[in-house]
Amino acid sequence: MQSATTTVTVAVLAMLAASPASARPSVYTMTCAQAQAFVKQRAAVVANTGPQTFQRFVTDQRGCDRQQVAWPAYDRTRDNPQCLIGMKCIDAPEAIGDPR
To answer: How far apart are CA 74 and CA 95, in angstroms?
Structure first.
């Protein structure tokens, strides 16, 4: 009985581990215009930027914490290697070049 429970537990954990990446949209498979529209429609979204990478994109400062600033977020899309998809939130010292 313990073996069956262990097998089910492992299977459920494997599905949960795989789900977040597969549930996220992939901007690298969209055109630049599609990726921009996707972010604009949702105001803030976490999207895959590659097979094993992801980024949080926002439309403006309102999507960031108070200690952060919205910064242009360029990434690869299907038709543009440097598409301005939206903004990303970065810590304020990084925005002014402070190495903290």
So the answer is: 15
